[in-house]
Amino acid sequence: MKYNCLIIEDNIIERDLLEMYLDKINILEIKSSCQHASEAFKILSSTRIDIVFSDIDMPDISGIELLKGLKNPPIFIFTTSHLEHAAESFELDVLDFIPKPVSMERLIKSINKAIEHLDLKSKVQTLEVEQRGDRDFFFIKDSKGYARLNYEEIVYIESFGDFSKLRTENGQTYTALINLKNLSLQLPDFFIRVHKQYLINFNKIMSVNTSEIILDGGAKIPISISYREELLQLINNRTLNRIAKESAF
C-alpha cells in the first residue's frame, strides 16, 4: 500500500530537495508539488491526500491558515525555519514540525510517525470510560472484546491527533478514539500534561532533567519549557506535603 502525499513549498530549491527525498521512499507517492497554498487547496479538495509536507511562511496563504481552513485535513507535517510557530502548530494537532534545512534522517523519523498514525487510525479501538466516582478503572474495547484497565497501571498517553495511545506498565499499548484534551478531562488528577503530545502518570516519574522525564520502565518523555516549571512546582509541593505528614508522627 502506498500513501499519497502533497508538498507545499514556495522556495524552489527546498521544494526540489524535499521532492528528491520523498521520491526515494517507496511507500509514498507524491501526488503533487505546489508553490502556493492556494494551489494545494484545490488539490486537497479533489484528491485523496494522506500526508501533507508544508512550509508555514508562504506569500499568499500560510501553512497554518491553510490547515485552519480545511474541514477534514489529512496529516500535516510542517517544515520551517521559524521555530516560533511550533507551539501554534501543535495546538492544531499537527503531527510533526521539522526545522529547516530538512535532513533525510529527520524526515524518515517523521514519516514513520505519520504511517504509524495512519495504520492506527484504520484499526482504532474505542474507549469506553466508566463514570469514575469511587472507581479506579475503566474499560477499553480491543480486538477480543473489552479490557479492564486500572488508571494507576497507565504510564503515559501520547496524542495522535484525534485519538490517543495509552501505554501500560506491562508494555501493552491501547489506542482510543478520543483526543488527548478530552481524554485528560476523564482521568484522575495524577495524570499531568508535560508536552503538547504527552500526558504522564505523575506516580511513575523516576527522574526529571531539562529536556525529558524518565518514567518507571525506562520510557523517556519530552518535556516542554512551558510545562517544566509547573511540574517542578508540583514535585516540590508533594515533597513538602510528605515531609509535613512524616513530621506529624
Structure description:
The chain starts with a strand and ends with a helix. The protein has 249 residues and is an alpha/beta fold. Helix content is 33%, strand content 32%. It has a 5-stranded parallel sheet with strand order 2-1-3-4-5, with helices on both faces. Strands 11-10-9-13-12 form a 5-stranded antiparallel sheet. The chain has a 3-stranded antiparallel sheet with strand order 6-7-8, with no helix packed on it. It contains 7 helices and 16 strands. The chain folds into 2 domains: 3-122, Rossmann fold (3-Layer(aba) Sandwich); 127-248, OB fold (Dihydrolipoamide Acetyltransferase, E2P). A hairpin with a 2-residue loop joins strand 7 and strand 8 (145-150).
Helical stretch count?
7
Largest sheet, order of strands side by side?
A: 2-1-3-4-5
Main beta sheet strand tally, sense and closure: 5 strands, parallel
What string gives the helices and strands in order? Answer: EHEHEHEHEHEEEEEEHEEEEEH
Q: Show unreliable segments.
A: 125-133, 242-249
InterPro entries: CheY-like_superfamily, LytR-like, LytTR_DNA-bd_dom, Sig_transdc_resp-reg_receiver
Keywords: DNA-binding, Phosphoprotein
Protein name: DNA-binding response regulator
GO molecular function, one term: DNA binding
